[in-house]
Amino acid sequence: MKEPNHFRRVLVLTVVVSLIATALVIWVLGPQLPPGSGSDQAAGQVTDNTVLTAVMTPLVCFILVFLFYSLIVFRRRGSGIEEGAAIRGNARAQTLWIVITSALVLFLAGYGTYALLQNGSGGGQGPNPIAVPSGNKLPVQVIAQQWQFTYRYPSFGGLETSQLMLPADRLIELHVTSLDAVHSFWAYGLGVKADANLGVDNVVYVKTRNPLSFEIHCAELCGLWHGYMYDTGKVVGGAEFAAWIAQQQQVFRSVARFMPPYSTTYAPDPQARAG
Ligand SMILES: [Cu+2]
């Protein structure tokens, strides 16, 4: 019996399975991928996760099709010991494999760099951000400390609060810093994650969308009560935000004069102390 063209069979099967699987990834799995659409950055991450998964799907399909094809077609039949011819290398297969996987990796590196440069993609960019989105920004400071986050609003007299409220549909410029250990400000629902370091002003941009509640966790082991360092933030409508600011200013009015002036960091200066 003439040996069938196994390569062509595997190729055809791979193409058929890939078309179905990639369509499912884009239209069924994609919208379910994290972290949701709480902000422009979060939605961008969902797109990125979908692209990453879709690009890798044909490769996974090829491996699985080849595996199951081999298991079924090349299985041992009968009881005799049959050993195939020894195969040492295949220049065409090796070259194709290297070219395809290199192209994929380079494409993903380029795509990732492009996506990062749009608006920082929700990551901390340090004190001198490269990817600065255009538009009117509302600065809000995140101050990590063992073991909670507090928030300062320099546009509202340096008001400091224990809850994070943000206005909806607004470009926010978060300034993340720490008073002690290394923490990480992780607002999952907003697609934001930024290290909080003592003496460092870590800037991250986020464009809010509709009102929502989102979880905030410290994402860097920072001591005994690290696991309890979480709270819930809120994105609210403009009027509700203004009312909340006014109410918080009222609550903290009596202690406002004891607050240190707003600063990008609050680290003590060891040189000044020594002097
Ligand atoms: Cu922490």
Question: Could you outline the blueprint of secondary structure elements for this entry?
Answer:
Elements: H1 6-29, H2 40-73, H3 91-119, E1 137-145, E2 148-153, E3 159-161, E4 165-167, E5 171-178, E6 183-187, E7 192-196, E8 202-207, E9 212-218, E10 230-236, H4 238-251, H5 270-274
Parallel strand pairs: 1-5, 4-10
Antiparallel strand pairs: 1-2, 2-3, 5-8, 6-7, 6-9, 9-10
Helix pairs in contact: 1-2, 2-3
Give the gist of this structure.
It is built from five helices and ten strands, in the order H-H-H-E-E-E-E-E-E-E-E-E-E-H-H. The chain has helices at residues 6-29, 40-73, 91-119, 238-251, 270-274; strands spanning 137-145, 148-153, 159-161, 165-167, 171-178, 183-187, 192-196, 202-207, 212-218, 230-236. A hairpin with a 5-residue loop joins strand 2 (148-153) and strand 3 (159-161).
Written description of the protein model:
A hairpin with a 5-residue loop joins strand 2 (148-153) and strand 3 (159-161). The protein has helices spanning 6-29, 40-73, 91-119, 238-251, 270-274; strands at residues 137-145, 148-153, 159-161, 165-167, 171-178, 183-187, 192-196, 202-207, 212-218, 230-236. Helix 1 (6-29) packs antiparallel against helix 2 (40-73) and helix 2 packs antiparallel against helix 3. It has 275 residues and is an alpha+beta fold. It contains five helices and ten strands, in the order αααββββββββββαα. 21% of the residues are buried. The chain has a five-stranded mixed beta sheet. The protein has a five-stranded mixed beta sheet with strand order 4-10-9-6-7. The longest helix has 34 residues, at 40-73. The structure holds copper (II) ion (CU). The site of copper (II) ion (CU) has 7 residues, from loops.
